[in-house]
């Protein structure tokens, strides 16, 4: 059974380019880094934050007196995210940013909005809607200015950038990941536990993974993905970014919300606990629970994730570890001694912040953050103790 074709070219190129130079993940400054441990020094690169887009200058204006509609197209871009440098509306009026068919549309009434929610695909339609229909000279001082957009790289651009980076993607042996939906019939519990896992679009251009933890409005990702409220609010959280059929590459309806507030974050243990602005919209996707115990050597694992920006994948099997993903070392060195759990489950750039779950108990036993084969995640018992006051 083959993986989805989405981003496959990217992952294949990166995987072929593995090198043995240790790389540290951002955004920590060198002076802030904890001392490297022996395991860190001997292994290869962190999967890290993946850059999946770029900023394009626009410089266009919509007004009540002239043009009230603007179409912004970037051929083969994965998404288009509009930035307003000016958004001055008459009372009751609003702006929409949508795809050409109107199947995805976001409405804005506040003059304080800067970045609109991204539109999936290569075209965004920005339109000014007036409820009064009155046109007069007084309206000349009102209008909308779009000064730039963040647009997603095409598959070809991502492949080229991956080739130029020459970094490992932390696939151990062959890539054994499959679309989450491939497990819907044979492993329904595993498939269900992929639903709380979300793709992060950070600042319009970079990617990580996150997941709902506990029944309340709580999300968990890595500190190196983002660490403060400003970064949280510039982060989109995409749920249900998953293929509808095994290997199809066709994604269903995606639910997009925004990060809201960072409740706790730590660089050494590389976690960020945060909330989203529209919890009601994502509550239906369920949640995961952190284990408060240590993992056991040989314990079988699985990792739902968004490697390389692909729709939800699950690493369940590993040809590098005798068939099943399993715990290699339950007390592996990460940014601190004995802070991590190591494994040979396949991961990639963009998998940072994914949950590592026990196949036996379906609890999260680690928060993935390092690549290098073995790959590793921060122990959940450590994270659970540190964030307990916020749960």
Automatic annotation (TrEMBL):
It comes from the Bacteria. InterPro entries: Peptidase_S1_PA, Peptidase_S1_PA_chymotrypsin. The keyword 4Fe-4S does not apply. Keywords: Signal. Residues 1-31 form the signal peptide. It holds the Pfam family Trypsin_2. The keyword Hydrolase does not apply. This is V8-like Glu-specific endopeptidase. It comes from Stackebrandtia endophytica.
